[in-house]
Amino acid sequence: MLKQVEIFTDGSCLGNPGPGGYGAIMRYRQHEKTFSAGYRLTTNNRMELMAAIVALEALKEHCEVVLSTDSQYVRQGITQWIHNWKKRGWKTAEKKPVKKCRPLAAAGRRAWPA
User: Fold this and answer.
1) CB of 112 within 8 A of CB of 86?
2) Residue 12, beta-bridge partner list
3) Quick one: which of 17, 34, 36, 86 has the fewest CB in 10 Å?
4) How many helices (DSSP H) and strands (DSSP E) are in the chain?
């Protein structure tokens, strides 16, 4: 049976682009680990993605993950886009390398090689 890890994420930006940051909490039973960082010039979507990616990349073994996010962008990236990118060899529908969500695609390539 796989361990179940909960991840809670958020990202924000003042202006778009502008200064921003992200935060994530990873919880397994009574153990918690937090992640956060700030940037001088970024976008809201980038911070939302980075929160999820940093937490997912910190996992030390294969496990079941429950990811809580308020970002539709992250939700679509993880539940829809990433599967299509994998099917296409990490390319967009236009057959170009994934750029829109490059960090998410990079994490996906490591987790699910084509």
Assistant:
1) yes
2) 21
3) 34
4) 4, 4
Element (H, E) at 35: strand 31-42
Span 27-84, pLDDT tens digits: 999 999 999 999 999 999 999 999 998 998 898 888 888 999 999 988 988 888 888 8
Pick from 46, 48, 61: nearest CA to 111: 61
pLDDT tens-place string over residues 44-55 = 999 999 999 899
Of the candidates 34, 42, 40, the residue with the CA atom closest to the CA atom of residue 17: 42
* 3-class DSSP state of 40: strand
SS3 category, 47: helix
- The third-level CATH classification (topology) of the domain covering 4-108 is Nucleotidyltransferase; domain 5 (3.30.420)
pTM confidence score: 0.81
